[in-house]
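Weekly sync notes, structure subgroup
Attendees: PM, AL, DS (notes)

Item 1: joint prediction request from the bench team. They want all two components modeled as one assembly rather than separately. Inputs as received:
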Amino acid sequence: MTRLHERGPAQIEANLTPMIDITFLLVVFFVVVSTISEVESVEMELPKPQPTASAPPPEQTRSVLNVLPDDDGEATGYRLNSVEYPLGPTGIGALRTALIPMLRNNPELRINLRADRRTTQKHIAPLLNAITEANTSSGNQTPARVNLVVVTRRNETE
Amino acid sequence: MREPRKVRRQTPRVGLNLTPMIDVVFQLLIYFLLATNFALGEQVFRMDLPERGGSTMMNDPFDIPEEPLRIKVLSIATERETLSVTLPPQYPRPGDLAELERFLAENRSGDTIGLFLADHPIQIVPSPETRWEHVVDVFNAVIRAGYRSVHFSDPEP
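Output from the run, pasted for the record:
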């Protein structure tokens, strides 16, 4: 037997390591993204102004404030990041208290306000007032920054 | 006597069977691919909320604050276009959002002389029962007309 065939026939194997690496990266990416989406995106019908002058969200630190809707779009509560607050003065007061340290630690913080298109202003105005008051109480010298979230489609933007 | 033949033993190969792990990882990948809901098409209107009374906005104590243009908004019905927009009585009442936008754009000081500068304070005053989409529609019309200082305000009691 020649030296070449001493070890028997050659084995052909696919090296799976790079594929596993990439697959794991993808899984980690989707786990992280889906967690963020769950915190930020409450299912609702956002306003859709047409033609719109809105812009893509800026790359800044943000917190998401959702006005939770029922089936008819009327507000049932608020959610700041992942914490829910009830409607009414108690909930608004707790929300304001939660906002103060956030705005104190990060004066540049932008608050993304997401509300259903059918929600009435009586549930949104107290929120805006609470943000203003929290910003004042946090000692910021700049106005509170809010992003009003709307939905649009790429081919409808100008 | 013949010497027994030496049996040549190969060392057993120790290998990790990765197939079940790859199966599970692919299952996870497909699950997250299908379950992830990206916020596609979401955009924002930027708005600053000035402090009530405007004390932090006044850099110069001798500045005379400009009287804001107050636009009252009221939802008449649940349909998209059914809203009522009212300007102060000295200005014509716009019939719809397009008329409001045209009025604001024509009276903005830019290339021509107009009533309002682009940073003139505009206050949108929705009634408590106004739907959020109508408030945003008016906000959008004001921004499209070229104004930069747009805020919300509560109705006067």
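Discussion: The longest strand of chain A covers residues 62-69.
Action: AL to compare against the crosslinking data before next sync.
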